[in-house]
Amino acid sequence: MASAQDLRKRIKSVTNTQQITKAMKMVASARLRRAQAKADATRPYAEKIGQILRHISSSDLQDYVSPLLETRPVKRTCYIVIGADKGLAGAYSSNVLKMAIEQIGQKTPDEYCIITTGRKPKDSLKSRHYHIDKSYSGFSDKPSYEHSRSIMEHALSMYESHEVDEVIMIYTRFVNSMTQIAQAERILPLEQPDDEVKGEEYEFMPDPASVLDALLPKYLEITLYNGLLQAAASELGARMTAMTSATDNAGELISSLGLEYNKLRQSSITNEISEIVGGANALQ
Amino acid sequence: MAEPMTLTIITPDAVVYDGKANFFVGRAIDGEFGVLPNHAPMIIALDVAPLRIDDPEGKKQTFAVFGGFVEIENNKVSIITPNCESPEAIDIDRAERAKERAEGRLSNPTPDIDVERAEHALARALLRLKVTKRI
């Protein structure tokens, strides 16, 4: 049985922890709102790029096929694993990792190549003896378009030099602050949208093929940027949920410790009184 | 004069410009072009170059546009670009330094230098200096 002093110490330390988790929850929820606003702000850009791509696809390309649209037999796959820099986000990091390991499966290092963003996926994949080709970190909860551009530049150069034949992005899709889904999406080779666009015929300057060549890298960059932003929102959402439940658990623990402490205190007072009364009775 | 066109500049992070225009001039990957209101539907691939917009009040505004596309339909123009900066937002000293660095790299290339990347950096720096009228 713990002494009253031990219990007091314990209550104090749990209260401190609760304050920390509460602060982290607040920080995460403020950042989450910002991250969501940022994800919404990219939507017009992404929609326009997609729209132009569809316009080009439905126009006359004179049998021009961009290398980025060409499907070739897959000898080596590049995985872009998007994860967090910091922990304390519940199952977020382990879900991404699980997805990545499931995707890589039994492939040998000659058949895969990994690019990671965020410290967590890098460390945990490394400790499982996966070979990591390149890693980026320091921006998991606030990615910028520049980051997406440099990652895509690396992936594209590998794809164009036939080092890899396929690029898969593993990220976490943000549904709401309670639900985030880890998923894998193939971003290269691109799938040509086949839905016909209605409306007028467009002219292209200089010509459809050159516009397509300029457009596809931009399309990939915005796809990756969207993945990074979704992952950032998911990370913050997961952290907020984890910290909320940690704060609640700490509250429960404090009240049950308080009860125990009061019981102990009461029984020691009762003990003292009965000793005094017993002593006084003995004197009569 | 024809009804002015509606012009928006969209970047991944924000809508930078949203207003009316009587005329705008830019550079496509194969040369300069100007667009007047009521243009036929068109998609243009832009180069890293200045873009000048004349609004109906007769004010001329110049932006630094780092590649991207112009889409024209029904007198509505959308300029979709990865990055667009107004002259006031450009850090001139930084652009000067970037220009010198890129020129240095291109004039004595060593094997570990990515020439293509240095050329892109130089083009960006020159554009920034051009719209701030430093060169």
From TrEMBL, chain A:
What PROSITE patterns does the database record attribute to this sequence? ATPASE_GAMMA
Which keywords label this protein?
ATP synthesis, Cell membrane, CF(1), Hydrogen ion transport, Ion transport, Membrane, Transport
What CDD domains does the entry give?
A: F1-ATPase_gamma (cd12151)
Please give the Pfam families that the UniProt record associates with this protein.
Answer: ATP-synt (PF00231)
Q: How does it sit in the membrane?
A: Peripheral membrane protein
One biological process term in Gene Ontology: proton motive force-driven plasma membrane ATP synthesis
- Where in the cell? Cell membrane; Membrane
Listed GO CC annotations: plasma membrane; proton-transporting ATP synthase complex
A single GO molecular function, which one?
proton-transporting ATP synthase activity, rotational mechanism
Cited InterPro entries: ATP_synth_F1_ATPase_gsu (IPR035968), ATP_synth_F1_gsu (IPR000131), ATP_synth_F1_gsu_CS (IPR023632)
Spell out the SUPFAM superfamilies in the cross-references: ATP synthase (F1-ATPase), gamma subunit (SSF52943)
Q: Would you say which domain of life the source belongs to?
A: Bacteria
Q: What does this protein do?
A: Produces ATP from ADP in the presence of a proton gradient across the membrane. The gamma chain is believed to be important in regulating ATPase activity and the flow of protons through the CF(0) complex.
Quaternary structure note: F-type ATPases have 2 components, CF(1) - the catalytic core - and CF(0) - the membrane proton channel. CF(1) has five subunits: alpha(3), beta(3), gamma(1), delta(1), epsilon(1). CF(0) has three main subunits: a, b and c.
* Recorded family membership: Belongs to the ATPase gamma chain family.
The protein depicted here goes by the name ATP synthase gamma chain
UniProt source species: Veillonella tobetsuensis
UniProtKB/TrEMBL annotation, chain B:
Keywords on record? ATP synthesis, Cell membrane, CF(1), Hydrogen ion transport, Ion transport, Membrane, Transport
The record's GO molecular-function terms, alphabetically, read: ATP binding; proton-transporting ATP synthase activity, rotational mechanism
The lineage's top-level taxon is Bacteria
Answer whether the UniProt record assigns the keyword rRNA processing to this protein. no
Membrane topology, record value: Peripheral membrane protein
Gene Ontology terms, cellular component aspect? plasma membrane; proton-transporting ATP synthase complex
Q: Does the keyword Transport apply?
A: yes
Domain ATP synthase F1 complex delta/epsilon subunit N-terminal, first and last residues per copy? 5-81
Where does this one sit in the cell?
Cell membrane
Q: Known InterPro entries for this protein?
A: ATP_F1_dsu/esu_C_sf (IPR036794), ATP_synth_F1_dsu/esu (IPR001469), ATP_synth_F1_dsu/esu_N (IPR020546), ATP_synth_F1_esu_C (IPR020547), ATPsynth_dsu/esu_N (IPR036771)
Q: Where is the ATP synthase epsilon subunit C-terminal domain?
A: 88-132
Task: Report the Gene3D superfamilies cross-referenced here.
Answer: ATP synthase delta/epsilon subunit, C-terminal domain, F0F1 ATP synthase delta/epsilon subunit, N-terminal
Which family is annotated?
Belongs to the ATPase epsilon chain family.
So what does this one do? Produces ATP from ADP in the presence of a proton gradient across the membrane.
Outline the subunit composition: F-type ATPases have 2 components, CF(1) - the catalytic core - and CF(0) - the membrane proton channel. CF(1) has five subunits: alpha(3), beta(3), gamma(1), delta(1), epsilon(1). CF(0) has three main subunits: a, b and c.
Instruction: Kindly provide the name given to this protein in its UniProt entry.
Output: ATP synthase epsilon chain
